[in-house]
Design goal:
By secondary structure, the protein is mostly beta strands. Helix content is 5%, strand content 56%.
Length: 947
């Protein structure tokens, strides 16, 4: 963690230097509304900056000029964000944490630890297919003009998203003075995949003065492709085993695995803290107190090869007939095409039947525990699985907006938007099984990585030693659409307490449908992979880059090279009902029509307090939601159930901003927001998954038709000091009181004659997880931010600056305690999922002459990612180890129009690791789980702009 003290030391040194810096005037407000709120206009004293510093300064001005607490990212030109998508671009924003970096990019974003930010595009709510949120990583950073992250919300903003709002703004033609062409071309090298990938964008814009006013047209297109490789190594979950000398009457043989409920063997899987790990701990087996050991059930290696492409385009036509009105018509499209092939190698480590025949079977315990660290096991089973998935998404937004100035002080805005989004996936997988092999395994040989080897390693790459196992064949289809109408009006005054009144109305008609298909078959007895005759077997190589002592190569079936219908025809010998491509149909899972009607009124006021301006803003938003649901039961021939619900809520908000001096201000905000449940979480019908790892039961999930919205009361207090031109320090304390948090409850259920394929994974017992509004919680914390570009540095050091922030969080929520029937028997306390107690980012920026550079380091403390499915003997908490990334961006401006760029991401080759923990039980050493290698990428590109 060498960069942690470096980052904080740098921040401290720069902060200490502030005292010697001369004060400067505030930068100019960005628009007339900001001028009214600020009560000043310092545009005459602004200094124009460009390059890296320009985007950073633009972010400071956005925060300063907005009534709400806002952090922003500003891009001067196409491609000037040093990132591939919007999620990655946001990672350096105060209070933002990103995670899930598989596939060479970050996919999950949280604001102050909460993972449900509302995503808007030019102020309009957007979504993906049948979901209630948008896959933000699908927006190319090349299309972005500005991104605003709202930590607080006013009455005129949408009411959903406990975490806040992320508004992505695209460019429009009247933003430019005339004809403009800009773009970039980058080549990105993925180190793990050993592939070069393109990232290109082009913007063309022009405007004309005509007899009917100014007319402008813009088109901005982007295309990215990424071929990547995910390599994940995992020590399996913990289960109990008999000791080498089980007591008489227990019915157990030496080192036999103890299954729950088998022969009256009494232990409950999925306890919060898992089974006790003290030496000599016992279970009541057949009425006998029986000592046990804890060991892993398997070792798992996943070598995934992926390819994704993202085409996107934004087109806008604007007409300004005069200086009092603007009409904008625009279309936004983003697409996603993804293909993955997962080469999965799974070996059990839980056999005990031939211990007597293998006196060399030994084990080693962690000191002071009953946990097995390493062992030799004879004749364990195993399988490989070649999993091929496809994913296709197309999302469109069509919008028309009109803005009018009415008289001298009035404004009216009208907006109509229609969205249409479709997503379709497919999954086709073939398992192959091998004969028994001896295994020698250390579940943590160092750094959380297991090591293992087999008695005959040659079997792993010999296609004649693997027989054709289960077939899995499934797919989904999801569609969504929305028609949204918004009307807003406001009136302003220059004097008196009341400075502005604003009111508006929003109507949203949302539709969503989800469909699924699923079939499968058992194995083909006696047919080896070498004899199968369909496609070519695939053998990987170089798994885990030499970083662990494990097999680096294995062979399996490769659906990518197969005729799928020919495979289905062969498997009809064991599953006659298998359908071919022209017979496949989707079953309807749910259909939803939701009407959201909202209205608001708000007012801005200003008074003088101790000779300084105090601006206040207060308002209330009324929201009414009426929803019609049709749900279809897969387990009952897709029988339909219809439900209608309705709810209404008043949501007040208040903000006060006081200018203590010209450069020092304080602001307070109170507001209430909602998190509505996802459509899938409302579906009461069960979706089942078989006993994939043969633990004795499968898993399943179902929604809850009575699930309600989560409600949060938010309070923020911020102090901001704009101590020098282009520099600022700010501190924000905040508190979120959240009622009705959704938590999962798990119950064991018997579901006979279910729809799962009749193969080795078929079962009639399931752990079913359902969401309930059974938790309340509090999230509180402090954000600190510093942007500092000294004005006194000499010569080549002029243009050196620092941008950094830290977020300290504390969270607690009630978690219901349930029995195996899913009944709540009590409650306990837990941290919020996804909340790191500390995270920070530090960026050294340089902008002088033709050279621009950023060196950024991001770090976040470990956090509770999720709870596992209550199927094993380890603690249920699935924790993520601390995450970090060191990134570099360099730009050489050849001239005013052309720049050459170099970018590097994850320079230190950080890994993503998980482990089990709940309360005081569990740790990264004895309870290590998975390790994912995170890709390191390098990019070289050319950026240009001609106007």
């Amino acid at each position: 963690m060498a960069f942690k003290p470096f980052a904080f030391c740098t921040a401290s040194v720069l902060a200490l230097g502030v005292a010697g810096v001369a004060h400067a005037q505030d930068a100019a407000p960005q628009d007339s509304a900001a001028q009214v709120a600020d009560g000043s206009d310092a545009s005459a004293e602004d200094i124009i900056v460009t390059g890296v510093r320009a985007s950073i300064v633009g972010a400071i001005n956005s925060r300063k000029d907005n009534v709400q607490i806002v952090d922003s990212i500003v891009a001067e030109d196409v491609g000037k964000l040093p990132d591939n998508n919007v999620v990655e671009a946001l990672q350096r924003v105060t209070g933002i944490q990103i995670t899930d970096r598989a596939g060479g990019e970050a996919a999950t974003i949280s604001i102050r630890g909460l993972t449900d930010p509302l995503t808007t595009l030019n102020g309009r709510n957007i979504f993906t297919a049948a979901g209630t949120s948008f896959a933000l990583q699908d927006i190319s950073a090349n299309l972005v003009k500005k991104i605003d992250v709202y930590k607080t919300r006013s009455a005129d903003q949408l009411e959903t998203g406990l975490a806040g709002q992320i508004d992505v703004q695209t460019r429009r033609p009247l933003d430019f003075d005339g004809f403009t062409v800009s773009g970039l071309a980058r080549g990105i090298y993925s180190e793990l995949a050993d592939k070069f990938n393109p990232n290109v964008a082009l913007l063309v814009s022009d405007r004309w003065e005509t007899g009917i006013g100014d007319i402008g047209f813009l088109i901005n297109a982007s295309y990215t492709r990424a071929e990547y490789r995910n390599q994940n190594l995992q020590a399996g979950a913990m289960v109990p085993f008999a000791t080498e000398t089980p007591p008489a009457g227990s019915g157990l043989t030496p080192l036999e695995r103890i299954f729950p409920g088998d022969r009256n063997q009494n232990w409950t899987p999925g306890l919060d803290a898992g089974l006790p790990t003290a030496p000599g701990s016992t279970l009541n087996i057949n009425g006998v107190e029986t000592p046990y050991y804890l060991a892993r059930d398997a070792v798992i290696a996943s070598d995934l090869y992926g390819k994704r492409t993202r085409p996107s385009i934004n087109a806008a036509l604007q007409w300004a007939p005069n200086d009092r009105s603007v009409y904008t018509a625009e279309v936004f499209y983003t697409g996603f095409r993804g293909k993955t092939f997962n080469s999965l190698h799974f070996s059990f480590v839980d056999w005990w039947g031939d211990i007597g025949a293998n006196p060399g079977s030994t084990f080693e315990l962690y000191d002071g525990t009953n946990i097995i660290k390493s062992r030799q096991v004879g004749s364990v089973a195993g399988f490989n699985s070649g999993d091929y998935s496809t994913n296709k998404t197309d999302s469109y937004v069509y919008a028309f907006n009109a803005k009018w100035d009415v008289a001298d002080r009035g404004k009216i805005s009208a907006d109509v938007a229609y969205q249409d989004s479709k997503n379709e996936t497919s999954f086709f997988a073939l398992r192959t099984d091998r004969g028994p092999l001896d295994i020698d395994v250390d579940f943590n040989a160092g750094g959380g990585l297991p090591s293992y080897s087999f008695g005959n390693q040659g079997v792993l790459t010999d296609a004649s030693q693997w027989t054709m196992g289960n077939l899995f064949d499934s797919g989904t289809k999801n569609t969504g659409s929305a028609l949204t109408v918004m009307l807003d009006g406001e009136y302003e005054w220059d004097e008196g307490f009341l400075r502005r009144i604003k009111a508006g109305f929003r109507y949203d008609d949302r539709k969503a449908d989800s469909f699924v298909r699923d079939q499968g078959a058992g194995g083909l007895p006696g047919v080896t992979l070498a004899q199968f005759g369909q496609g070519s077997p695939f053998t990987n190589s170089g798994f885990f880059d030499g970083q662990a002592d494990i097999p680096t190569s294995w062979v399996l079936a490769d659906p990518r090279s197969m005729d799928k219908d020919a495979v289905r025809t062969l498997y009809r010998s064991v599953a006659p009902g298998l359908l071919l491509s022209d017979q496949l149909t989707f079953g309807h899972v749910f259909g939803i029509n939701e009407i959201n009607t909202a209205a608001y009124i708000m007012a801005d006021g200003e008074i003088e307090l101790f000779g300084r301006p105090l601006q206040v803003q207060g308002g209330v938003r009324y929201v009414q939601i009426d929803t019609d649901y049709d749900y279809f039961d897969r387990g009952n021939n897709f029988a339909r159930t219809s439900v209608s619900t309705g709810s209404a809520k008043w949501l007040p908000s208040f903000t006060a901003r006081y200018g203590i001096t010209d450069n020092l201000r304080i602001r307070f905000n109170y507001g209430e927001v909602l998190r509505r449940p996802s459509f899938g979480d409302l579906n009461p019908n069960v979706s089942l998954t078989g006993d994939l790892s043969r633990i004795g039961f499968g898993t399943g999930s179902a929604g809850n038709a009575s699930l309600g919205a989560t409600h949060s009361k938010n309070m923020d207090l911020a102090v901001e000091w704009y101590f020098e031109r282009n520099s600022a320090i700010y501190v924000t304390a905040f508190r979120r009181e959240i009622n009705g948090l959704v938590v999962p409850l798990v119950a064991r259920e018997f579901i006979p004659n279910n729809y799962l394929p009749r193969n080795e994974t078929y079962t009639e017992y399931f752990n079913i997880t359902r969401p309930v509004n059974a938790s309340n919680g509090v999230l509180k914390g402090v954000e600190l931010g510093l942007t500092y570009f000294p004005t006194y540095l000499p010569g080549p050091l002029n243009g050196l600056g620092f941008v950094g922030s830290a977020t300290i969080l504390d969270s607690e929520q009630t978690i219901p305690v349930v029995n195996t029937q899913g009944e709540i028997t009590g409650s306990t306390k837990s941290a919020f999922f996804g909340v790191s107690k500390l995270s920070y980012n530090a960026t050294l920026a340089y902008d002088n002459g033709p050279i621009g550079a950023r060196l950024s380091y991001i770090w976040r403390k470990g956090f509770l990612q999720s709870n596992e499915g209550r199927a094993f003997a380890n603690p249920i908490g699935f924790w993520r180890a601390p995450e970090k990334s060191l990134d570099l961006q360099l730009t050489w401006n050849v001239n005013d129009d052309i720049g050459v760029t170099f970018d590097a991401v994850n320079l230190t080759k950080a890994k993503q690791q998980n482990y089990y923990k709940f309360g005081d039980a569990g740790n990264p050493t004895q309870f290590n789980s998975s390790t994912l290698l995170i890709d390191r990428t390098f990019a070289v590109g050319v950026r240009f702009k001609f106007d």
